[in-house]
Design brief:
Blueprint: E1 2-8, E2 11-17, H1 26-34, E3 44-49, E4 56-62, E5 67-68, H2 72-84, E6 92-97, E7 101-110, E8 113-120, E9 140-147, E10 150-158, E11 162-167, H3 176-184, E12 194-202, E13 205-212, E14 216-218, H4 222-234, E15 241-246, E16 249-255, E17 262-267, E18 269-275
Parallel strand pairs: 2-3, 4-6, 11-12, 13-15
Antiparallel strand pairs: 1-2, 1-18, 3-4, 4-5, 6-7, 7-8, 8-17, 9-10, 10-11, 12-13, 13-14, 15-16, 16-17
Bound molecules: 2,6-diaminopimelic acid.
Pathway: Amino-acid biosynthesis; L-lysine biosynthesis via DAP pathway; DL-2,6-diaminopimelate from LL-2,6-diaminopimelate: step 1/1
EC number: 5.1.1.7
Family: Belongs to the diaminopimelate epimerase family.
Length: about 280
């Protein structure tokens, strides 16, 4: 099987093109190939598939073999892949995902290669029961949750995949490994959850570190960055356009007031190609 290794701000993926549908063994393949010692190594396995509604369809498996509804960093990689490899000559194209339907993507092209990608990530889902959480509120803001005797307050946002946004004093140095895994699988989250720890630095700048559902600590999370800005606007902490600074780099997020859509702008990179 031929693959292309790509990343969005260090959130890295094995990208596979040429299949007409998700292989039956995609979950096992994801666990095997994402393993950083016995496989290629990545946060996820991404398939570029044909679509009836859009130019392309993306499906993404986390490194634990679970399928995610949506992935911001991966969709930027897919957009770069299809343009750079001549599968399309469009600089504005559409990609269909499980969690957000047909999404418009705009490429910035330099020397025939896509260097920056702006994605319409769709509308956030704020009804607690639809994120999903067990909390019947809309939105779920400042919700108390306890793990191992420590109380956190979270805001719940779905971008097609579920997110739990928690504000802390120092996100950059927060002990992700101590608390991320416990929150990920808390019974308040019926489909588990991605956990973002956020420190607001100004009305248009936040630090964020993420423990991802099904992948653990990643260097960046695109949907998590979108959830961070939505939660920060709901809490009155930031404006609707803000930079989210992740361990792997920065994403520019805009939650558009007119159409309620969230836009994410950031880079994507190809690292190497291979056969496995
Ligand atoms: N682990 C996530 C999927 C990948 C999301 C993240 N890598 C992004 O860039 O949005 C989940 O299970 O919902």
């Amino acid at each position: 099987m031929n693959f292309t290794k790509m990343h969005g701000l260090g959130n890295d993926f094995i990208v596979v093109e040429g299949e007409t549908k998700l292989p039956d063994n995609a979950a096992e393949l994801a666990v095997q190939l994402c393993n950083r010692f016995f496989g290629i190594g990545a946060d996820g396995l991404v398939y570029i598939l044909p679509s009836e509604q859009a130019d392309f369809r993306m499906r993404i498996m986390n490194s634990d073999g679970s399928e995610a509804e949506q992935c911001g960093n991966a969709i930027r990689c897919v957009a770069k892949y299809v343009y750079d490899n001549g599968l399309t000559d469009k600089e504005t194209l559409t990609i269909e995902t499980l969690g957000a339907g047909v999404q418009e993507v705009q490429l910035t092209v330099e020397n025939g290669k896509a260097v920056l990608v702006r994605v319409n990530m769709g509308q956030p889902i704020l009804e607690g029961l639809k994120v999903p959480t067990t909390i019947d509120a809309n939105p779920v803001i400042n919700q108390s949750i306890e793990v191992d005797g420590r109380e956190f307050k979270f805001t719940a946002v779905s971008m097609g995949n579920p997110h739990c946004v928690i504000y802390v004093d120092d996100a950059v140095n927060f002990d992700l490994a101590a608390w991320g895994p416990k929150l990920e699988v808390h019974p308040m989250f019926p489909r588990k959850i991605n956990v973002e720890f956020v420190t607001v630095r100004s009305k248009d700048f936040t630090d964020m570190r993420v423990w991802e559902r099904g992948a653990g600590p990643t260097l960046a999370c695109g949907t998590g960055a979108c959830a961070t800005v939505v939660a920060s606007v709901l809490n009155g902490y930031t404006d609707r356009t803000a930079t989210v600074s992740l361990k792997g780099g920065d994403l520019l997020i805009e939650w558009n007031e007119e159409n309620n859509h969230v836009y994410m702008t950031g880079p994507a990179a190809e690292v190497f190609r291979g056969t496995v």
